[in-house]
Each structure stands twice: as C-alpha cells, then as structure tokens.
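agent: user wants the structure for EamA domain-containing protein from Prochlorococcus marinus str. MIT 9302. delegating to structure tool.
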Amino acid sequence: MIGILAAFGASISWTYACFIWRSQTQKYKSIDINLIKNIIAFLIFIPAFINLSSATELNYIFILLISGIIGIGLGDTFYLKSLQTIGTRKTLSVETLSPLIASLAGKIFINENLTPKSWIGIIIVSISLLIILNKGNEFKEGNSHFLEKNNYEIYTFPFFSVLCAVLGGLFSRMVFIQSNLSPFLTTEIRLLGAIIFLITLKRFKINFFFKNLERNQQKRFLLSIFLGTNLGILLQQIVFKTLPIAIGWALLSTTPVISLFFAKNEEREITKKIIFFTCFLFFGLTLIIL
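agent: tool returned. relaying tokens verbatim.
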C-alpha cells in the first residue's frame, strides 16, 4: 500500500512541477533548467548523507550514480527538451510506452515475473493513456518551426526520455533488491550523479538564470523543485523499493490523467470519452495491483 500511495503522490508532484517548468522551457535551455533544479534539490536533501556510512558498499553508490546520470541527468533533459519542441500532448503520448518498456526490462534484467492479469492491466493502462491523450482539444504545442521541419525526428527526445527514465529506475530497483539503503539517501546519490554529469557536459559553465526570475516566479520555481525533484524522486524511490518495476512504473505513468486537473490551463476539454477511458485506465490499474 505504501508503494501504491507513493506512486500516485509522485505522479501528482511531477505533474504540477512540469506545469511550472513548461513556462521556463520557452525562455531557457532544457539542460540549464535541469541542472539548476538538481543543484537546488541536492542542497535541500544534503542532510541525507548523514546516513552514509563506511559500511555502504561502493558498487551500490556507483550504480546509483549511473542511475542518476541516466534517469535524471539525461532523462529529465530529454523530457524538458521534448516539452519545448513538440509540446505536452505528443511528449506524453510517447510516455505511454513506459509501462511496457519497464515490464520488459524487469523481466529481462532482474527476472521479475508478472501474472497474465498484470500484463493485461499494463496493456489496458498503456492503450487508455494513449486514447486519453488524443481525445478532445489538443494541448498547446511547442516550437511549430521545429515541427514543420521534422517528422519522425521529433519523437527522438520523448523516446529517449522514456528509455532513460526506465533504465534509471531499473538500476535503483537493482540496488534496493540487494541492499538496505534508504530511499532518502538513494535520492541524494542519484541527484549527485546527475549534477556531476550535467556540469561536465556544460564544461562547468552554469547559467544561474534563477536570479533573473521575478520574485513570484522564483517562488513557483522553488516549489516546483521541491515537489517535482525532491519529493517526486523520493516517492519514486519508495516505489522502486517496495514494488516490482513493472507495477511501479504502471502506477507512475498516471501523470497524463492527473494533468486533466490542469485542463483549463492547458486549454483542453474533458469529454465523456476521456472520462470513460480514465475509468478504463483505473480498471487496468486494479488488475495490476490486485
């Protein structure tokens, strides 16, 4: 039950944070937004290192650093870049692949077996999400100039975002299976890995755009960091610790449904078909959980 509640909490936190980050992707580079949010989140969670002891095996720390590089450093950058270039709807449409990819990854790499009922539930969730995202009015889209000049290439960013996020979660799950490290500490180590990678990629040239924001924008940005990065990743780590990655990721993928609460802001109409397939999605989740 803890893992289930953590998954829905992470989805809510991430949805609200992305709602704020979208407005910044039109002004600043995705890599700059990702780096600044990770640095601030890392500083907020710095007390987590109190729980790091000399008995902690270095191989677990190394795996978590890699998890942070792939899942947060690369994954979040690709996600923000996707929001910037193709908009919310197309980005989230590709994100519907994540439960299926996570299920296959769990089966292949850590031998997590699912019941036929769970597989049916995951397929229902993925199909329902895809239909929900393509019903009613479209979200505001991203860079139209980019869309005109690119066809299949525009889906590179969201696809790699999904792939990196799932791989990052898979590495975290592997550590939790083999160790007693806390979600709090693993969150901080993953953030550290992402920061080291992004700073190196930027050649230590950090754009501190935060100081250029208005006071209200600064408050909203800090809130988005705490909810989307600190709380979001912490809850995500609890999910990876307590649930198989396939089931955990299916629950985490409910972000598009939660985004319906922001439908007015996104200029999107909630139709009867959306309501129906939302109920159908929760039926799929019920099959997965029970």
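agent: one observation worth passing along. The longest helix spans residues 58-95.
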